[in-house]
Design goal:
It is built from twelve helices and 17 strands. It is α/β, with parallel strands linked by helices. The protein folds into two domains: about 210 residues, Rossmann fold; about 150 residues, Rossmann fold (3-Layer(aba) Sandwich). Keywords: Signal.
Length: about 400
């Protein structure tokens, strides 16, 4: 058999084939003790579909930071999945706060990028367009939006989960706070779209249950920079003692400014969607000083005395966030929790198969960075109500009241 001289060595054709096969096996690697071939750098691919520009940017940019911090943290030891340790790879796309773009990017992440799961959708409208695409591609999707119809009807949302608190729980907390302050007449300024729809339903029911009177409801404009004055004027004309603003940044703070510009001096109460850096910015600080918000307790950061596993994880996350970004935002931890939930589902299912990740997400009962989640086959969303707190703006910062 003819040989070939290579660097002073003469290899036969059979020897060349054997050498090539050995090199291929070395490149692929083997699981110790099993002899099963595996890729050298196995990954857990998480598609990220976020509002990094456009009206949802105040929330989307926070989630991008959080996602990166948690992925980096888990990658220090990698994620054990079956007999492999996988590296988390984030594939990040900016949906520009455009629902149509969000839907297209979901298809791309699921097909071209072969994402094992997708996270994102800080706005209800973008999440609602991601959902049918995720369902069709059968890829698990964890939403950061708060609208109640994201995970219902469950028969049409089998791959869909959400982390934000339920509107019902936030509304009950706000109504209880208003009652505790002896306020009777309440106005409501609600965002346009699904988030505001959830708020109107939940606030109406919560005020009725606490014997408060809803004197007026007005919807905020859909377009950033549009005048909130007419909506604020309609509510103030009914002489409320308290006004609930149910929306997301930057609309929430714009509504607060509009209320103050009418001469309204009563209490302002926000849902969790208002809690971003924009709400406390210089242009909004005077209008929102003394206002209240219901938000997951993560807004208060991490207690140094909390030595539970969840408490230590929360403290480590806050430290890393402060180290990288200088200040901590309580809205940010949803992204960290989403990465951890997906990693845990893959670990428990011993697979990155999308169907198994979906199934094991439905068994998660955990305390995360933002709060506690209790998923089940018949419940795919909503933070536990016990992990909501009441906060007030004091000297330009959020301070916990209860």
């Amino acid at each position: 058999m003819a040989g070939r001289a290579v660097g002073g060595w003469t290899l036969s054709r059979r020897g060349l084939l054997a050498t090539a096969a050995t090199s291929l096996l070395a490149a692929c690697g083997r699981d110790e003790g099993t002899g099963i071939r595996r890729p050298e750098n196995p990954e857990l691919v998480i598609g990220v579909n976020l509002e990094l520009t456009g009206v949802g940017r105040f929330m989307g940019l926070l989630q991008e930071r959080s996602l990166r911090i948690m992925a980096d943290t888990l990658n220090e030891t990698q994620v054990p999945v079956g007999n492999l340790r996988r590296t988390i790879r984030l594939v990040i796309r900016d949906n520009k706060s455009d629902p149509r773009v969000a839907a297209d990017q979901t298809d791309e992440l699921a097909t071209r990028e072969n994402a094992h799961a997708i996270v994102g959708g800080c706005l209800a409208e973008t999440s609602l367009r991601i959902i049918p695409a995720a369902q069709q591609q059968q890829v698990p999707f964890i939403s950061f939006a708060a609208a109640d119809n994201l995970t219902t009807p469950l028969s049409e949302r089998t791959y869909i989960y959400k982390l934000a608190p339920d509107a019902r729980d936030m509304a009950r907390a706000l109504a209880g706070l208003i009652r505790s302050q002896g306020l009777e007449r309440v106005g409501l300024l609600a965002a346009a779209g699904a988030h505001g729809d959830s708020g109107v339903r939940a606030v109406t029911a919560a005020l009725e249950s606490t014997d408060r009177t809803l004197v007026a409801t007005a919807r905020l404009p859909r377009t950033e920079g549009a005048d909130c004055g007419p909506a604020a004027g309609r509510v103030v004309a009914e002489f409320p003692e308290a006004v609930i603003i149910w929306g997301t940044s930057p609309f929430s703070a714009a509504a607060a400014r509009a209320l103050r510009e009418t001469g309204y001096t009563g209490g302002i109460f926000f849902d969790a969607g208002a809690v971003t850096e924009d709400t406390l910015s210089d242009q909004n600080s005077e209008a929102v000083e003394g206002s209240y918000a219901v938000h997951p307790i993560s807004l208060s950061g991490s207690s140094l005395t909390n030595t539970t596993t969840a408490g230590l994880a929360r403290r480590d996350f806050v430290y890393r966030y402060l180290h990288e970004h200088g200040s901590f935002s309580g809205f940010a931890p949803y992204g960290a929790d989403a990465v951890r939930l997906i990693a845990d589902a893959a670990r428990l299912g011993k697979s990155v198969d999308r169907g198994r990740i979906r199934a094991y997400l439905a068994t998660q009962v955990v305390e995360g960075i933002a709060g506690a989640y209790s998923f089940s086959p018949i419940r795919h969303g909503g933070m536990a109500a016990d992990f909501l707190g009441v906060f007030t703006v004091s000297s330009g910062a959020w301070s916990r009241v209860s």
